[in-house]
Amino acid sequence: MGSIRFEGVGKVFGNARTGFKALDDVSLAIGEKEFVAIVGPSGCGKTTCLRMVAGFEGVSAGKVLVNDRPVVRPGADRAVVFQQFALFPWKTVRQNIEFGLRNKRIGKDQRDHLVAGSLKLMSLESHGDAYPHQLSGGMQQRVAIARAYVLDPDVLLMDEPFGALDAQTRVVMQEELVRLARVNPRTVLFITHAVEEAVYLADRVAIMSRRPGTIKEIIDVKTVRLAERWDGHERIEDVMDLESFVHLRTRIWKSLREEKAEIGH
Amino acid sequence: MRGRKAVVGLCAVGGIIILWFALTSWFGIIPAGRFPTPAQFWVALKQIELRGYAGSTLVDHALHSLRLIVISFLVAVGTGIPLGLLMGWNRRAEALINPVFMLIRPIPPLAWIPLAILWLGLGDAAKVMVIWFAAFVPSVINAHAGVRNIDKSVIEAARMLGTPPLRMAGEVIVPASLPMIFTGLRLSLQASWTTLVAAELVGALVGVGFVLNMAQQDIYPAMILVGMLTVGVLGWATTFVLGLVERRVLSWSLQGRG
């Protein structure tokens, strides 16, 4: 379980004829347990793609399918991690993580067991009774990731999840996410404008063009990563130093720069 | 920090009392007919508490007014907050209620006094109705704005987590609006006191407003001051209690920390 398919998806905001055309003919298939990152210039509609999978936005043309069924409304089978964390500030860390499980009518004992497990997984054991405002940004995003992961969702949707964090915290969280993906692989749709982040995390990187947004190119990272044994390196900076990594990064950069140059004319 | 603030506050109150002595008793700059001296104030206070004035002792007047305030305030926020929340959450309810609300809102609460007396007589029910009109408005407005200002992504997070409607209201919408709701409660309480005295000026037989009314007819400035300060002290006390509740309820929020 956990495939995502975009089939000729279009999105117009406002009136169908005079409105703002955000997406045009987006097609992308994400397989089970695959990690796909979408990169693109700001305003290209990449977040809209994610929001359509989440069920926050409808499509104007085409189809968005999750497990071969069209998306109708938001639901716990598609957990979202937001850029601004979107935790419930009036609930403790434990209550935040537990909330989705309560909605799924999971019993108290089972809930306590799952929450304890995910607190441990995200190194949050000592913060279970803290309120979000007492935590740093990185810690808050750990809570948000735990809140999504604990639901055992078919797909995980991450909308620039590390965009609001400082550079050092960001690196720690990226390593953390790679570790998490190894322990507990998921279908992930990851939105970012940071090219290095996309190459480091994803199996494939989809590059979007500017207005109206469409998928311009899909780069296979996984083949290179396995062939060049990136996983043998514990630290992100060692991976980023590898020639194969630099090569892929540069290729995506060039593709994105073409976009900006076209706008310049 | 809090201790120092309290000391500064006490000094300011002390300063005003000294100034009062200086301007009236010591140097006689303000003639006694215009503003009472501290000694006259003390005599009036002893009189109303020991022998009674306007039919009752000060404690009885104060308790009666306080009871009216508590009842009216609870009725007003008990109706105003749900209405504001409903208007904030449901577009259709907003479209239906808001125009009526906007039309009624500019009418001064005291303009309801004639109707209130006509409908409910001279008793407490009429006063509750007038205070209700005054205290109701800030509760509605702030609960409405509270829902409207909820961070959109928090609502989306709740929807993504599969939250059923009742839990959405009770565990997401209401708590997220609470900081604004409390702003409304404080304004409602303020409005309650402002209106109470005016409501009691008309057709009351007991209460702080009635004391003020009688003291005015008796041309008794010291008793007027007793009545005014009673309202001040009671108003401060109720606001203080509300503040304690707020700090308790909003302990999770950044504002609640200070």
Which blocks of ≥5 consecutive residues of chain B have pLDDT under 50? none
Percent in helix of chain B? over 70%
Helix count of chain A, per DSSP?
A: 9
Fold-level CATH name of the largest domain in chain A: Rossmann fold
Q: Label the overall shape of chain B.
A: globular
Total number of helices of chain B:
10
Whole-number tally of structural domains of chain A: 2
Quickly count the domains of chain B: 2
User: In angstroms, what is the radius of gyration of chain A?
Assistant: 19 Å
Mean pLDDT figure of chain B: 90
Which strands sit side by side, in order, in the main sheet of chain A? 6-7-8-3-9-10
CATH homologous superfamily descriptor of the largest domain in chain A: P-loop containing nucleotide triphosphate hydrolases
Question: How far apart are the termini of chain B?
Answer: 11 Å
- DSSP E strands of chain A, number: 10
Main location (chain B): membrane
Transmembrane segments (chain B): 7-29, 68-88, 100-122, 128-147, 193-212, 224-245
Family (chain B): Belongs to the binding-protein-dependent transport system permease family.
InterPro entries (chain B): MetI-like, MetI-like_sf
Keywords:
heterodimer, A: 265 residues, alpha/beta, Rossmann fold, 4-stranded antiparallel sheet, 9 helices, 40% helix, globular, B: 258 residues, mainly alpha, 2 domains, 10 helices
How is the topology of this model organized?
The complex is a heterodimer of chains A (265) and B (258).
Chain A: E1 4-13, E2 20-30, E3 35-39, H1 46-54, E4 61-66, E5 69-70, E6 78-81, H2 93-103, H3 108-121, H4 137-149, E7 155-159, H5 167-183, E8 187-192, H6 195-201, E9 204-208, E10 215-220, H7 222-227, H8 236-241, H9 243-264
Parallel strand pairs in A: 3-8, 3-9, 6-7, 7-8
Antiparallel strand pairs in A: 1-2, 1-4, 4-5, 9-10
Chain B: H1 2-26, H2 38-50, H3 58-89, H4 91-104, H5 113-120, H6 124-148, H7 152-160, H8 165-201, H9 208-217, H10 221-249
Family (chain B): Belongs to the binding-protein-dependent transport system permease family.
Domain ABC transmembrane type-1 (chain B): 62-242
Organism (chain B): Jiella sonneratiae
